[in-house]
Specification:
By secondary structure, the chain is α+β, with helices and mostly antiparallel strands. It has eight helices and 16 strands.
Length: 416
């Protein structure tokens, strides 16, 4: 019997009859071929289990054909299956408790700004609470009202869109099944008040009930250097154990072109975005509480997790303690080396300002210092204290004028 493997393969028998098999649904199939009379009976067992329908066309030498639609006879007849059927792996309760999703590769390239475990919540409930805005579910909108509560104006959260082939992320290059646009604006204090327009391009995909990824790209307009960078924010919710999820938030400031103030922009943007995203995470966790499921044994699992966290904290603290203990020795050697090799060559006059050579120069330096004293001393004091300070400074200015007058008279007497 000659066989050519593949979808729609033709199998030719000795008597000239042939069979063309075309599988309608399912993936990862294993073909079993068994000769029965003048025709060929083909049965396919799906790795994932269940009954798989097949379309079998038997063509004979006389050109006639018949279409047979059958099911897996082992399932239909209640048979025990054949020897070559793979065993279905079933996770034990202990394995379910220890279940962890592999790390998200893109998240590892970002700064992790937040992490929160939510107990007793499914990925479906998390998605509906956090990102559905109440569309196609009974959950209340959360993202739009959150932005409004943060002082954002003209907030518009468009509905999720989907298309064949999905959507590709600009930075991560990954494919997502959904995409939506969120727009709003707000007043920002730069050089005066300026109106900043913001657009979030949000993309989402879910991996069964094990992971939900929400990636958003933030673009802004309306202030200097706004066109130089894009903020990438990523929310990854992954199943932990059998009933809990772990939500992690990553951030990356992506510069589109070189910028003189790149470091300052990255620092300020990271601080502002971190606060906003952590407030959003807290709101999401609070919203998920209504959908938590109480599972027996959660208290024991929580105690085990607390022990693991405490051990990790103790290890980190011990490492930090070792570093701190080494600091006095490092400081000692640096100080000793400076005193031996540098101090003999340093002149103390270098640390003092150049001394004035005339009375006018001395008075000018004093007046400058008095001006600085006036600015510093008036900060953080009451109006009454400011009045008293101003009175004393006025007396100092009068004394300086008297000194200037006396020295000028002395100069005239010397000249005459």
């Amino acid at each position: 019997m000659k066989q050519v493997r593949g979808l729609g393969s033709r199998i030719t028998d000795k008597d000239g009859s042939s069979t063309v098999e075309d599988t309608k649904i399912g993936t990862f199939f294993k073909n079993r071929i068994q000769k029965m009379g003048t025709g060929i009976k083909t049965a396919t067992d799906a790795v994932t289990g269940g009954v798989v329908e097949k379309l079998v066309i038997n063509k004979r030498g006389d050109g006639s054909s018949d279409v047979l639609k059958d099911q897996d006879e082992d399932e239909a007849n209640g048979g025990g299956g054949s020897e070559d059927e793979p065993a279905v792996e079933v996770m034990t309760n202990e394995e379910k408790k220890k279940f962890r999703m592999p790390p998200d590769d893109t998240l590892q390239k970002m700064i992790i700004i937040g992490k929160q475990k939510v107990k007793g919540v499914s990925i479906q409930d998390y998605y509906e609470v956090a990102w559905s805005e109440g569309n196609d579910c009974d959950k209340e909108p959360i993202y739009g009202p959150f932005l409004t509560s943060c002082g954002k104006n003209d907030v518009k959260v468009n509905k999720w869109e989907s298309r064949e082939g999905g959507y590709k992320g600009d930075w991560c290059g990954e494919s997502y099944t959904q995409q939506r646009i969120v727009t709003f604006n707000f007043m920002k204090q730069t050089i005066g008040q300026t109106l900043v327009s913001v657009q979030h391009t949000q993309r989402c995909r879910r991996i069964e009930n094990d992971r939900c990824i929400l990636h958003m790209s933030l673009k802004m307009k309306g202030f200097p250097y706004a066109d130089c960078f894009v903020v990438e924010v990523r929310h990854v919710a992954s199943r932990v154990g059998e009933n809990d999820i772990l939500v992690e938030i990553g951030l990356h400031v992506r510069f589109l072109k070189s910028c003189l103030f790149e470091s300052k922009i990255r620092t300020n943007t990271t601080a502002e975005t971190t606060k906003l995203q952590m407030d959003l995470l807290a709101l999401i966790v609070e919203g998920c509480k209504s959908y938590t499921k109480e599972i027996a044994g959660d208290e024991e699992d929580e105690e085990e997790e607390e022990v693991d966290v405490e051990e990790e904290f103790e290890e980190t603290a011990e490492e930090s303690k070792d570093i701190i203990c080494d600091l006095p020795f490092i400081r000692f050697f640096i100080t000793l080396g400076a005193k031996i090799f540098l101090w003999p060559f340093i002149k103390l006059d270098l640390f003092d300002p150049f001394p004035p050579t005339t009375v006018d120069e001395a008075l000018t330096n004093v007046r400058r210092r008095v001006g600085l004293l006036e600015k510093i001393s008036c900060d953080g004091v009451t109006d009454e204290q400011k009045h008293r300070v101003a009175k004393e400074l006025k007396a100092i200015q009068a004394s300086l004028k008297n000194i200037e007058a006396i020295t000028s008279i002395s100069k005239k007497d010397i000249v005459s």
